[in-house]
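User: Hi! I'm working on a homework problem where we have to compare a predicted structure to a textbook description. Could you give me the structure for the chain below?
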Amino acid sequence: MRYLHGQAGWRVTVAIQRLLIFGVSHFVYARFTAALAPAWLPPSPLFWTYATGMAQIAAGVAMLSGICAPLAAVSLTMMYAAFGILVHIPAVIARPSSHGRWAENAINLILTGAAWCLADSLSTASGRRQRRGIMGWLDRRRKQWSRDT
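Assistant: Happy to help. Predicted structure tokens:
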């Protein structure tokens, strides 16, 4: 649980707590949330409301406890990305003049990006992998510059 220390750790903890609240809200406002799910998705919109709420709670608990935290964050990212592909993009295509559909899509993109950032920070904080690409290069340069000064 090294990633929960300091100022950055406090921010991660607050984000995870918000995720838990978001998951619980799926149960408290189940009928409202089920109305947002497409009816064509089997078995029922209410099932998906409870399933996604439980998945968000499970991911939040896993990240807070540090047990499989990177896996939980990656799974959460994939779940939000699947929402975009299966639910929000078809809804925008079906009714492009609906501002509500565009707003739901934008919120889902924000959640996907936030989960992706959280997954990346947890995987590098746990020391399980080294960043690649431009972010990895910047990390290596930052470490080299800090040693040189």
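For your comparison, note the following. The first helix runs from residue 6 to 28. The CA atoms of residues 26 and 102 lie 21 Å apart. Good luck with the assignment!
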